[in-house]
Design a protein that fits this description.
single chain; 754 residues; alpha+beta; 4-stranded antiparallel sheet; 28 helices; 56% helix; 11% strand; globular
Length: 754
Amino acid sequence: MAVQEFPSGTTIIQREQPLSALYVITKGSVRASYPGGELYLHKGDVIGVCELNYDSHFMNYKAMEDTTLAAYPCSEKQLTQLIRTKTDLCNIIVTSLFRQLQEIVDQYEMSKFDCDTFYQYLMDRYEEYCHLTAKHSLATRVLPGLDSVTELVLEEDIPEWASKYYEQLQRIIKSISAKSQIADFIYGMLLKASNDIYYVLSICRAIYEYKAEIVNFLMKENRLDFFDLYASVLYKIGAHNDDSTTITATLGTMMIQLESQDSIDKDMYNARVAEYKSKLNDLENATEAPAASQSSENIKKELTDSLNIILSYSECDEETASAFRTSIDKFKKLPDKNATDDTCRKLRTSITKNFYKIYSSSFLKSLSDHKVPRIVKMFFNFGYVDETLAGLDNAAYLYSIVDSLPSDPSKGVYTAYEWLTAIYEGRKVPSRNEFDNDYPAYVRDLKIRGEIAAADEARMLNDKKEQVLFELNNMITSGNKMTFGRISIFSPIFLESNVLKDLENTLVSADMVETSFKNIRSIDFGAYYRETLYSNPDIGIGKESIDVEILPDIILMPNVGVRGVAWQEIEGRKRTSPARMMVSIFEMEDLNNILVRLTGEYRWEMCKRIQGARWNDVSEPSLTSEYFDYIQFYKKNRELSVDAKDKIKLSMQKAKNSFKEMFVRDYEAWILYEGTGSPRLNKVARTILFTHCPFAKDVRDKLKINPLYKDMMDKYDIKLAQKVRHLDNLSQKLNNNGVAIPKEIEGQRNYLMM
């Protein structure tokens, strides 16, 4: 028996640390924590007994006061011998096991009850919110993902008899005085109980993550949450309205609920609450707001009858114009513009169909019009059609910015209108459609199906108008819906109810995109580099692999949305052409996080493009093949702990068994957490990511002291030195021959040193 002492606050054992002994607490107390709960161990309790049947710990243990532990070996032979010879120790181990097991089961039952209560609380609050917005004639906002939230459903659960089984088993073992005679039985029982405890904790983890998802709807960093829904209503109706007391009470209850949740970011929570209290204080002390400025009133007058201005400009056929006008009039009368009933769905479908007909005819007319009305520009860039549906304040803001949008095609950031214009002018070729056919393949397919003649095929291939219509009816229509993010309630028109944040703070600019990509590349420096071959026989260079950076084109879809879309990784077959990605022009989610995700998608798809049919063949190492092999055979991987395997299983369920989605999630963790020194991935995933998406030199230098990365970085440095040495030798050879070093070779060396 070895005795160890730990000062208060010391971490005794971390999860996934090898299980080498059982520790009896002889003095002090210890907090054992796991995802979704914690329990306190005191004098006489045993650390590690719950994990006895595993190679590593699945709980964290921290000393809550000065603590002394007595260590005992826990191999089968040694522990069985201790049980036979030390009856008192046997009693301590068994008693502590049953106490910990019962507390874990009690916490499981409480957490499960909390989930049911939380779900009902969420639904009741949304119903109350809808009632408040209807009463005060405010737009009812729909939070992304809220429609997919359901009551807690566990794929696996604890049998009802399990708790009673262990209660009775404890009484039976207590009644046996000569425990040495059943040492093997007790040891087997400890292993069986350890299995059952782990099973309960795996369910607790699923419950914890469900609960965290619900809590996330109450408050999260991007402000697409219930706290903001209620606070926004309060700010609009004022602090002295009859309903203000109800709203402040609801917000107060939310704060109480959130304070006790482990999954909430405490700094973010404190900042949001402080901001709310400050604004509430201003509201309570506010006098009547001054009248709107004359310029604002003039803008609102200009917006009157927007729909008819757009329809008149489009010169579309009367049937389309009439059907669109009728649909919009009916839509305006709906109490809930985001309802999912059949009537509302059909109305949105009709609006969408005619919207793009009007968009097409208006766009083609605008190509020869040097004085496109502002209202029509708003239609092109924002999907704006009606001042009432958009909300007058929103419409006035759109009107004020439409002539000075912060896009910049020279930086690869286009509005939808600028992108279509680039297609028409031949500066860009049409994107592939949803069937992955480019424009020539699409035209060829029309001819094969007999829909056009050979002469039409030749004409269409060079017809800029046809190319624009192909782009509009494929990439733009699909991308607009996908970036909006809530497909079940999508319509292409600008609606006040979709504005979940202040428009001014969500307008995407070229500078914002540029900054986000710089942040990503400061961690994953090779994200957008592509390998090409360089040859210059005249100076003695045969074939050299050169990496060239090609940043993607970003198209700002005319909507208020929450998603990004990686549409295609290259143009046609040309690997040195930019990828095409889409985000909403008003992005309600964090733009940097969206572009991180799109970069992950791009990395996966680009690797598949390069590898071709062998993208998942591990005999040809690549990002996709190694990651595919890792996920496909994770259950047999000895480098993964039981806890890591359970996490992969749960993640696969969330990713709907998509290998690509799993990789993208790991890539997000790689950039947002691992790249800042906060480990999130398991050893195998970390190795794959570091091999194919290595950190930039600055990040590597900071992380070298971390043992999690040391071995990987040492191997990387050896390979890097070999590549640099090769280029240095080549450069020396050129210098000896009096030949200037090509910029391609210099550029490659600079790339390697990043």
